[in-house]
């Protein structure tokens, strides 16, 4: 070795030693990090970044101390952005990036990292996404992981409790109060273990709230007493006031007026002592509203409400007071005074309106209003007042017309509000909330003799979306990731701005800036929806299409040719209506009361679905069937052979009604009946593009099922499938092992007719997703979105309970039949209850026989049932055997398998001579089939 080389080695060694000597040990780094805790955010961020650079020069970056450094950087960036008057999304994204980097280190299975610290970072990541980045679903995942890890490390449970608070709120926002209740109970348990009275009180409050919403009043009262004991112990008087208000609400529901007044008085004393103006206002507002019910208290009610108005600081608070004052005057039949008050409430939101002229705002002008649910109540109150005024001698037709215009405005508002509310629970809440409004609107159309307007309200009271359950379980898969983020961000931004506006006093100068921003976001959301209509029409139809068909352009099935009728029912709280469209429309208020209808319908349906009970109680069935005919059908004077029915309430088999008190004179013998969810779904479906529809028929008959599916065999179904499928060209019949879930997803979308002999579960609830069974696996409703749609004209579900789901009032049934309809299948044969194998097989065979005679589907099913009754004995005439099979959707005959587009593709390939030969073969086959059928 040369002297030069030896010198270089010595210099390098000394350089390394000096470099390492400049690195503090890990304890010193930790001390430097700790010193940043007392610094302002900007100074702390600068110091932490210097420490980060120094650490990276000295030590590996997979250590808990370094992860803690990154975690603090994320937290400081978050706090700095949160305090900024105009924080950017980038600032919060930067905070998230550091937080996720800390998580990545602590997730490693290494001795020098701490898994317990994940609790801190997951909590921060969740809050960042929940409150600032509008990624609620992502936040939900972080909070869940935070709780799971906190369970392992008890000393981290205070942070886990905070995460469970957000999970509780997450489910509350979705309208899933059962889940919210479960998480609130979890929060309560950990709060009690930690002796954390603040979170314990909050958790108890949420448990009470959920029980009140779920109408579990006794349980709510029990928890309230528990909460008051905790509050008294903690000395938290403000929370005590809230508890007293809930006790007052419970006493109101129990009609215990002295107790109600006592609790309101105690709550008011607390808030006046604290000089809490907002809560004092709320207490007086609620107290005044609660006194309206009893006419003896009207003077006191008005006094409380006027006190609340004087104290009100926000627009939303003033509007709520005026709404209650208007309601009070309406109850006193002081209609003109009530209308003036409602107009003042509207003008409080929209000052440009004229109170003197009683003008309504335009539908577009209410889109940007904060707390629009309050304004909806005002608009509805005004409409109700016009309606009640029209019944008074001085009101007349002018008042009735004003009522109709105001109800139309309320209906438009509901459309806008549904855009902003995501999730089935929220949408269902609005349907229930607005049900009474639609009933009174229909009453107004009845009094005005306006069948056209009645048709609109009938349609809007039913499902504005075909497949809400499908949306909740899988429709979001149809959106790109970018569109999903955009949709969520717009919704959350609108909601946040509305809440900020609602909290500001009317004189606050910030209102105009916030209002302008809100209008901009509403315009952006409108543009986003409009774009989806073109780029993603399927998703647009699921989520945003609230349109209804025109009364004059109602598309009854083309095969009706003037011989059919459309019937729609509305079952309200005080009346039952029937709307009939034959040559002209007529709206009829039926004599049956809603409570009687519900009782008769439920008893009738239960008997029809139970062969043993039906056989034992046939006289009772006969009485029910005739009573329903007399009450629901006879007053409509239907004189056409074919009828389409849009039901409301229980889903009844009208064919099983009896037209005479004795014998078996079923309504089936007079009419071919089919069903639809609403008139909207009588419109011709949009043809699916990109398919040659090669298989005219595809059928599935598993017969036996995989052991894990726990389904009983369906012996004989394969033989029936072979029989019903033999008269179709290009048919595919998949039995036993071939009747698999994958084969269904592969072959069914391109078939003209789909036949299923199998089991299904469609009692859809929050906990159970509808499913249909194949030989190897079950197909869940949400998995239907794996296809791009179906080309089928008809789906025959010869299975148990494929039509019935959890009935949601005004919404019909959530079911597999609806799931397939949402994917473009216009017609479905389905069953309303568990049916026996042999009747199902025979009725299916008879149905196909008539279908091949080019009969409409409803007529084919009617004749199949009539043949069954004619050929069978007394036991076969029981409706449990035949009435459960129904047709939902388009009743037109099947069209030809070959379309013009297909012929256009085929002719250049095989030539005209070959086409002529094929046509001759088709003619010969048709002659042979007619001889065979005859």
Detailed description of the structure:
The chain is of the alpha/beta class and 934 residues long. The strands form 4 sheets. The chain has a 6-stranded mixed β-sheet with strand order 7-6-8-12-15-16, with helices on both faces. A 5-stranded mixed β-sheet has the order 3-2-1-4-5. It has a 3-stranded antiparallel β-sheet with strand order 9-10-11, with no helix packed on it.
The helicity comes to 55-70%
Q: Characterize the main sheet.
A: 6 strands, mixed
Poorly predicted ranges: 3-21, 422-428, 464-477, 687-693, 806-814, 897-910
Q: What's the gyration radius in Å? A: 34 Å
Helix-strand layout with pairing:
Layout: H1 3-21, H2 26-35, H3 41-58, H4 64-83, H5 89-106, H6 118-132, H7 136-152, H8 157-174, H9 177-193, H10 197-213, H11 217-234, H12 237-253, H13 257-274, H14 277-291, H15 298-311, H16 315-331, H17 335-349, H18 372-390, H19 396-420, H20 424-448, H21 451-461, H22 468-474, H23 481-503, H24 510-535, H25 537-543, E1 564-571, E2 576-581, E3 585-590, H26 594-608, H27 611-616, H28 618-633, E4 642-646, E5 672-676, E6 695-701, H29 717-725, E7 731-735, H30 741-747, E8 751-757, E9 760-761, E10 771-773, E11 778-780, E12 794-798, E13 807-808, E14 812-813, H31 816-822, E15 827-831, H32 837-851, H33 857-871, H34 879-882, E16 885-889, H35 900-933
Parallel strand pairs: 1-4, 4-5, 6-7, 6-8, 8-12, 12-15
Antiparallel strand pairs: 1-2, 2-3, 9-10, 10-11, 13-14, 15-16
